Amino acid sequence: MRIRTAAAATSGSLALLALLAPAAQADAHKGDAAFTSVVFSRTTVNVGVSAVQKLTVTATAKDNSGIKLMAGLKLVSSDNRIQYAKSSTCTRPTSTTMKCTWSYDLDPDSTDYPDLRNSSAGTWHLDVEAAAYDGDFYTLDSSATMKIKRYARLATTQATPEPVAKGGKLTVTGALTRADWNTNAYTGFAAQKVALQFKKSGASAYSTVKTVTTDSAGKLRTTTTANASGTWRWQFAGTSTTASATASGDKAALK
User: Fold this and answer.
1) N or C end: fewer C-beta atoms under 10 angstroms in the chain?
2) Taking a C-beta distance cutoff of 8 angstroms, is the pair 127, 75 a contact?
3) Is 2 helix (H, G, I), strand (E, B) or coil?
4) What value does the mean pLDDT take over residues 51-73?
């Protein structure tokens, strides 16, 4: 996408991309203009239901005639929403390069602008153009990407009875929830595989005993055999749109 604006927008709003710009295409360029680096302060940002998460992006571009400006400064979501930079600063390290840093606020519950929606979770890309004095340009349309995911939580693990006889049965329960950006509340995450892990007393690491699938309300329940004293916990690996999570453990001693 060619950007013809002469200055960068600094609004902190989220807007529907479909109303403002075409869908992302491959990067485009003319002449020797190029981006030499694009660095995200966080390659994955996990957003809950209330706290604003901060993100900065720093990009350096060059051209033999010098870079006149960088315009656009947009993060574009997986559902074609736009997040404009909250602020930007640019410097000229050399006569042929420009380096800009942009800051973004990722807000699940904005009172001033449209906020994040569940469909926004996933891969986002940076959309910005470097325009040179001689008319050359380079447009980042899809190659610079990062992840914005829905925050996940696992309730504290409960293992009963405790103490338990060696070889006896333990019932282990828990619950997996994740941020619902549509309602700004945590809701049960159904049909997800969660690892039940055990760390023997005196050991330094957990090992996975079995994998359990959450029910329709995100709850976990299973039975297992107690062969040693130790700590039990749940661990969720996450998905492409939801963050990973690890529960606090529960110690279970043998009688």
Assistant:
1) C
2) yes
3) coil
4) 96
**CATH code assigned to 152-252:** 2.60.40.730
State the alpha helices, DSSP H only, in 75-211: none
What is the distance between the alpha carbons of residues 215 and 247, in angstroms, rounded to a whole number?
17
- Do residues 53 and 44 lie in contact, with contact meaning Cβ atoms separated by under 8 Å? no
Q: Which two tokens stand for residue 87?
A: 């602020």
Strands, E assignment, 85-167? 87-91, 97-106, 122-132, 137-140, 145-150, 152-154, 158-160
**Sequence spans of domains, the chain:** 14-149, 152-252
Q: Are strands 193-200 and 230-236 parallel, antiparallel or unpaired?
A: antiparallel
Question: Using one digit for the tens of pLDDT, what is the confidence trace for 105-149?
Answer: 998 887 665 678 999 999 999 999 999 999 999 999 889 999 999
Q: Which residues contact 255 (CB under 8 A, 6 or more apart)?
A: 163, 164, 165, 166
**H-only helix segments in 171-233:** none
| Placement of tokens 């103490």 in the chain | 163
Same fold, 14-149 and 152-252: yes
Do residues 230 and 199 touch, judged by C-beta distance below 8 A?
yes
Contact call for residues 181 and 150 (beta carbons, < 8 A): yes
**C-alpha Rg value of the chain to the nearest Å:** 24
Q: Cβ distance 241 to 180 under 8 Å?
A: no
- Is CATH 2.60.40.1930 what the domain over 14-149 is classified as, yes or no? yes
